[in-house]
Amino acid sequence: MAQVVLENVYKSYPPRKGEGVSSQSQTSAKSSDKVDSSQRPEGVNVLRRINLDIADGEFMVLVGPSGCGKSTLLRLIAGLEEITGGNILVGSRLVNNLPPKERDIAMVFQSYALYPHLTVYDNIAFGLRRRDGGESVNHKGSLPNWAENLLVETTSKLPRGLRYISDRERAISDRVRNVSELLQIEHLLNRLPKQLSGGQRQRVALGRAIARNPQVFLMDEPLSNLDAKLRAETRSQIVKLQRQLGITTIYVTHDQTEAMTMGDRIAILNQGQLQQVASPLELYTHPANRFVAEFIGSPPMNFIPVQFQAPQIITHNQFRMTLPEIWANALQRYDGRTVILGIRPEHLIVGVPATKNLQTTVELVENLGNDSYVFTKLINDSGTTRTVTNNSLQVRVPPEKLIRAGEELWLSLNLDKLHFFDPDTEEAIFPKSLTPVLPFQPLANS
Question: What is the pLDDT of residue 142?
């Protein structure tokens, strides 16, 4: 087991022949912190200034939208991609220039990557057999490895009693059977991958990684090919296995449900940069910026631009309310200016007509059985004219609350659950009594 440390990691690719650097890449490079010119990546910037400490035995989840660089970061750690700048340490070793086989890392791919012509047993044993000298198993063979391998190969098609089985092969067999029992696939060892279901194939891929007993597990969206029920079952199995084995695990996904339910901590990436690193609950309750607030949570957080008036008043064309005193100091510098109000769907409550409540019209209702999601739009009622605005709000209501499309709802806000964001930087504004969780700040293991 080992700690993984990423220090100021950059990754860029040269532009294709005949293509210039995209304006987005140029802008991002300019906006990022100053870097030594020898380290400044050129071309298409995929990752910028990644600083991350992953504790020994921690389950770290990398999450973000497609194209944010999370899989690329995983491949850099594995050694499948060449780093552009910075350092990667596994344990106390700097692994920047080490080939993948020397990093003592096992990777589980999205596509399983099983050998179709090998049985489940041979797929799990493959990595053990390819290790030089068989370091992963204890054996006391009297013959050199090359001689034992030759005897094993030449006698493999003979009847079982005539085959040569080395001490090393016996140790590998014990390891494979222990892993298969752990994953409950011992009855599948003689099958080929084409004879397995998707969930069984995924467990074989996990078994191949576990058998090597590496210092670090890397998992690149391993559940994305499974159906919803099987994904939930396998998700819980992976978490139990990781806790049982205690191996440092870095798990990549774009599914926030996986991230929230599996990770000790979550690192959120967007456009190649870390946005926030924190425990799941910390991300949900104290997002560092608008992107994190919108990305974490389903349905996502609602956002409304409002005017702040000192000491504690916010106004909008459709409503006016007094904030709790806790916000008075935090918002003083925005007096007379616009701020972005954020409120999660479960913190909007169906209420009664009032100046402080929001008048809306219902556009769509999704009944899920345990919850209902109501999609609404704000109504602008000036007394003489009444129009539906483009400001959309999503509300989570209990299933027994019968609401139909076309109805009008008055929504009240839970004032203890408000969020505010700077309209220019989109960074979160925190009350003085809260400690802000800043981007790139590594937190203690939850």
Answer: 58
- Give domain status of residue 74, yes or no: no
Number of domains in the chain: 1
In a 13 Å sphere around the CA of 353, the CA atoms on its Cβ side amount to 3
Residues 6+ apart with CB under 8 A from 425: 289
User: Measured in whole angstroms, how far is the alpha carbon of residue 21 from the centre of its chain?
Assistant: 28
Task: Indicate the pTM of the whole model.
Answer: 0.82
HEC assignment per residue over 80-119: CCCCCEEEEEECCEECCCCCHHHCCEEEECCCCCCCCCCC
For 292-357, give the DSSP string. HHHHSSSSPPEEEEEEEETTTEEE-SS-EEEPPGGGTTTTGGGTTSEEEEEE-GGGEEE--S-TTS
Q: Cα separations (Å) of 26 from 69, 231, 276, 388, 413?
A: 17, 39, 23, 40, 41
| Mean pLDDT within 218-244 | 86
- Other CB atoms within a 10 A radius of the CB of residue 52 amount to 19
Query: Which residues does 344 contact at the CB level (< 8 Å), separation at least 6?
Result: 297, 301, 302, 417
Residue 195's φ and ψ, nearest 5 degrees, are -95, 10
d(CA 436, CA 433) in angstroms, rounded, equals 9
Q: What is the pLDDT of residue 137?
A: 47
CATH number of the domain bearing residue 370:
2.40.50.140
Residue with tokens 């489940």: 120
Residue type at 365 in one-letter notation:
V
Q: How far is CA 382 from CA 306, 317, 322, 410, in A?
A: 17, 9, 21, 16
If you average pLDDT over residues 148-176, what whole number do you get?
77
pLDDT given for residue 160 in this prediction: 67
Pair of tokens at residue 319: 């409503």
- Whether residue 48 lies inside any domain: the answer is no
Q: Quick check: is 425 in a domain?
A: yes
What is d(CA 64, CA 57) in angstroms, rounded to the nearest whole number? 23
Give 12-65 pLDDT, tens digit per residue: 988 766 555 444 444 444 444 444 434 444 578 899 999 999 999 999 999 999
* Amino acid occupying residue 44: V
State which residues form the domain around 358.
Answer: 303-429
377 falls within a domain: yes
Backbone φ and ψ for 78, nearest 5 degrees, come out as -75, -20
